[in-house]
Design brief:
Elements: H1 4-25, E1 30-32, E2 37-43, E3 51-62, E4 68-79, E5 82-86, E6 88-91, E7 97-98, E8 102-104, E9 109-116, E10 129-139, E11 146-155, E12 168-175, E13 180-187
């Protein structure tokens, strides 16, 4: 019986230390849910050429109690031998603001994220093919970049092959039941051309 009190004390100390580590010391990491939708279109902003834009909607959350501060967020875009950095970042549901820091708590933050190519003088053509998108974050106080999620999409051939119109956009909506993205091409003046992504992700 004389050993019970010391054992209980040690267990209580261990539990307290674990609680302290779990709730205060442990930083965890930043994660992203599977984007519910991804869209491809072009911005016409007075540049030499139309600016390729990719925007998506997902929940960013922290696995640690303290949360994380994202310094910058960008997309790595790969199609065949082409690679591009989409790091002109803006976010918001209604009023789009320039991304210059975002706190991600344990409960998460969900919003739309817009990315334009960093090459403002060149045009990234959304031609048909297999696209790999990697959402990457630079966290405050961390040297290494954090990969939040990767998505593979099969881009349809046709929407931007002959001309680039501000009314045209390619949407990929995630279907949990089919476990793949469903693609649709929308022309805001006509609202036509619907079809499915044959490959899925």
């Amino acid at each position: 019986m004389e050993y019970i009190a010391p054992v209980v004390s040690v267990l209580a100390l261990l539990i307290s230390l674990f609680t302290l580590w779990f709730s205060v010391v442990r930083r965890g990491r930043v994660c992203s849910t599977h984007p519910s939708f991804i869209a491809f279109r072009y911005d016409f902003v007075g540049k030499k050429v139309p600016q390729a834009k990719i925007f998506l909607r997902s929940l960013l959350y922290s696995t640690g109690k303290r949360g994380h501060m994202i310094e910058s967020l960008f997309l790595r875009v790969t199609e065949g031998t082409r690679q591009a950095e989409f790091s002109f970042w803006g976010y918001g549901d209604k009023d789009l603001v320039r991304g210059s820091g975002l706190f991600v708590p344990e409960t998460g933050v969900v919003t739309n994220h817009h990315f334009n190519s960093i090459d403002a003088d060149g045009m990234f053509l959304f031609s048909g093919g297999t696209y790999s998108l990697e959402l990457v974050a630079k966290l405050v106080g961390r040297r290494h970049l954090a990969s939040l999620c990767k998505v593979t999409l099969e881009m349809p051939t046709g929407p931007f092959d002959k001309s680039i119109a501000r009314e045209t956009a390619i949407f990929f909506s995630w279907s949990p039941e089919q476990d793949r993205y469903i693609a649709s091409v929308e022309n805001r003046s006509e609202h036509v051309h619907l079809f499915s992504d044959p490959a899925g992700s």
